[in-house]
Amino acid sequence: MPVKVRCPTCQKVLNAPETARGKAVKCPGCETKVKVPAGDAAGGDESPVPARARAAKAPAKKKVEADSSDFLAALDLDKVVDSSEAMCPKCGAPLPEDATECPKCGTDPETGQLTASAKKRKNMKGPDPALFYRAAWVDSWAFVKENFTVGLRTFLYTILANLAGAGCVFMAGWVETAPPKVFFLSLTLLTFLIIPGWRWCVVIETVRVSAARKSNITRLNFDIFQNMALGLKTIIWSIVFWLWFPFALFMFPLAMVHMAMPVTKRAWLNFLMVPTFFRNLAPSLYFWVIVVATQIPLLAILGLSNFMFSAKIQEMVRTQGKPSFPMSEAWVALGVILTAEFTYLFVNSFLLLFYARVIGLLAFYFQNSLDLVTFIAEKEYKRKNIKVDRWGIPIKTTEQKVKEAVFLVVVLGVVSAAGYWIYVSQFKGKS
Predict the structure, then answer these.
(1) Computed from CA positions of residues 257, 262, 268, 271, in that sequence, does the dihedral angle turn out positive or negative?
(2) Which of 12, 17, 15, 18 is nearest to 31 (CA)?
(3) Which residues have C-beta within 8 Å of that of residue 361, sequence separation ≥ 6?
(4) Is residue 209 within 8 Å of residue 216, measured between CB atoms?
(5) Rounded to whole angstroms, how far apart are CA atoms 144 and 391?
(6) Cα dihedral sign for 40, 43, 46, 50?
(7) N or C terminus: fewer CB in 10 A for the chain?
(8) Which residues touch 17 (CB under 8 Å, ≥6 apart)?
(9) Quick one: how far is CA 366 from the chain centroid?
(10) Which residues contact 229 (CB under 8 A, 6 or more apart)?
(11) CB-based contacts of 233: which residues, under 8 Å, 6+ apart?
């Protein structure tokens, strides 16, 4: 019965005969000597031959073992390779059943040459874009689970910011004088900028992490003033990029990718993004397919709850707590609507991470066709040669003298106008 051993160099499985136990055979692929385990045939009391007979035959056995090189020369190495386990003819990696190419090197097991898809991957710079469509679901879901705390923080920040904004609105309506009313209205505006800014920060940081092929957000701190500034940036970008041209909304994932880069010019000018959009039309639209597929169930639940119970809430408010139906039904309706809205906010807090990861994967898999500017050209500093007089004082050029003269005239004009206005309004009027 042949003994199966694996070559430690090329990992091929060899069939060695029983007589090779305790010896070394040469691998036909890499010519490495492979030791065959001795096993039971090397000796033992279980052999049916008597001990005396074995002792008598010992010299003959010793003669056979005298020169292992003669044994290797007589061994048919073509029959040593195990054909029962499919292996790649090029790299020796195990092949699954019905495999059309080697999973390690891409070689066709029948022809021994690279397959067309393997040649395409070899000539391609960067990852295979075809892998994006599956990773958009699988990898994004794994990313959400790994960064669960970020989604939970998003939900808590949303609730707190909305409560703070509602409190500011209440105070603006409660006070009567103008100064505190303006103050609370301004505070309301600033409060409602926090969440858009935080969501912008989450998306940009996720894109940067995903483009670097990482899966954990580590540098995401909540800064209320930074979030207010980013919230204002979100509103300005929305007006500049897509509100005046709604079609540009479809380019949102591409714009966010460019926003995460050092140079963000294309993300602000939608007409510059149009060629990039049509070059990456499939993944851009696939992002919106994912958004629609995940939002429809949530919107259906929220819309159904409002459709069924909002009428009772409106009647309770209109009648000032004295509706035509029992108050218990009104409280049940209010509870159902609030539960649906809180559920919507909770799930969307995690969907934000999911969508951001999809955009980040788009940046990773399609990096060669997104026209990204990933570095800023350094400016060369040239020292100016300033002429000085014999006392070391810089000599002013004609342009500098003209600028100083114009500035002096403007200052004198402003001062003269201000003095004349004070004279007319304060002194001449009294006289």
Answers:
(1) negative
(2) 12
(3) 132, 135, 136, 139, 140, 210
(4) yes
(5) 70
(6) positive
(7) C
(8) 2, 3, 75
(9) 12
(10) 197
(11) 197, 200
Q: CA-to-CA distance for 75 and 36, rounded, in angstroms?
A: 14
Q: For 378-428, where are the E strands, in sequence order?
A: none
Which pLDDT tens digit goes with each residue over 304-318? 988 888 888 888 778
For 116, the token pair is: 């067309």
Using the structure block, give the residue that is written with the tokens 């033992």: 44
Place of tokens 């060369």: 380
Of 77, 108, 85, 79, residue with least CA distance to 12: 85
Q: What are phi and psi of 374, to 5 degrees?
A: -100, 5
pTM more than 0.85: no
pLDDT in tens, 197-239: 999 999 999 999 998 888 888 778 899 999 999 999 999 999 9
Answer whether 101's CB lies under 8 Å from 107's CB: yes
Amino acid at residue number 16: A
Please tell me the distance from the alpha carbon of residue 82 to that of residue 75, in angstroms, as a whole number: 15
Contact 342, 112 (CB under 8 A): no
Beta bridge partners of 25: 34
pLDDT at residue 413 tops 70: yes
pLDDT of 164:
94
Closest CA to 370 of 273, 276, 265: 276
Q: Which two tokens stand for residue 79?
A: 């029959």
CA 191, CA 416: separation in Å to the nearest integer? Answer: 45
- Tokens 């069939």 -> residue: 15
